[in-house]
């Protein structure tokens, strides 16, 4: 049995120079060092309309929602770096969760992309709190759809000054802490897989 954990990593941002895309890539290094196979996706490559149930009823799920669900089902867990928008999560991240939580067919188990998955959360923000208010909401949303969440998380404040040109964090202690989040996720998934 292959116990190598498979982790899907992404940021809740579309911006090219997103601090959260940089941050999740730091955590990816830790996850890979701990033995995980990590797939990074950029949500801007999967544009979807705002969820409208009338459109869903008449047209079904958008093709990109179907693609994302397939990718998610192939992974054991998620490494998510979420920006904070007005003390909550970004619209693109909420829409991503909303669409992928929908059933593609009547026979599909509810929340099939989320039930039993394990996730670790990160945030980077130019503000003083590092995006922690948004993670409170994200933790609640994911917990309510049966995702197991690592209790530890990491928020990087003053994110516009936090990164080196190569994408690493200027603060070596923060760099290690973020890498550890990725490693902890990989180890937890490995432990769960070994018992099932």
Description:
The protein has 196 residues and is of the alpha/beta class. It has a single domain, classed as Flavodoxin domain (Rossmann fold), CATH 3.40.50. It has helices at residues 19-33, 53-59, 63-73, 91-100, 132-144, 172-195; strands at 6-11, 37-40, 77-81, 118-124, 148-149, 154-156. Strands 1, 2, 3, 4, 5 and 6 form a six-stranded parallel β-sheet that branches. Helix 1 (19-33) packs across helix 6 (172-195). The longest helix is centred in the last third of the chain and has 24 residues, at 172-195. The mean pLDDT is 96.
Topology of helices and strands:
Elements: E1 6-11, H1 19-33, E2 37-40, H2 53-59, H3 63-73, E3 77-81, H4 91-100, E4 118-124, H5 132-144, E5 148-149, E6 154-156, H6 172-195
Parallel strand pairs: 1-2, 1-3, 3-4, 4-5, 4-6
Structure characteristics:
196 residues, Rossmann fold, 6-stranded parallel β-sheet, 6 helices, alpha/beta
Sum this structure up briefly.
By secondary structure, the chain is of the alpha/beta class. The protein has one domain: Flavodoxin domain (Rossmann fold). The chain contains six helices and six strands.
């Amino acid at each position: 049995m292959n116990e190598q954990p498979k982790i899907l990593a992404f940021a809740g941002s579309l911006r090219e120079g997103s601090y959260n895309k940089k941050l999740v890539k730091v955590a990816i290094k830790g996850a890979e060092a701990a033995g995980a196979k990590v797939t990074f996706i950029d949500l801007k490559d999967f544009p979807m309309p705002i969820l409208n149930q009338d459109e869903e009823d008449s047209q079904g799920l958008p093709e990109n929602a179907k693609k994302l669900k397939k990718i998610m089902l192939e992974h054991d867990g998620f490494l998510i770096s979420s920006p904070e928008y007005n003390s909550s999560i970004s619209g693109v991240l909420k829409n991503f969760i909303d669409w992928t939580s929908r059933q593609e067919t009547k026979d599909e188990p509810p929340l099939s992309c989320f039930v039993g998955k394990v996730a670790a959360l990160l945030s980077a923000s130019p503000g003083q709190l590092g995006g922690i208010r948004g993670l409170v909401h994200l933790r609640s949303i994911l917990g309510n759809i049966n995702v197991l969440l690592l209790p530890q998380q990491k928020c990087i404040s003053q994110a516009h000054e936090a990164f080196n040109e190569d994408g690493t964090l200027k603060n070596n202690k923060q760099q290690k802490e973020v890498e550890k989040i990725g490693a902890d996720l990989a180890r937890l998934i490995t432990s769960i897989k070994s018992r099932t």
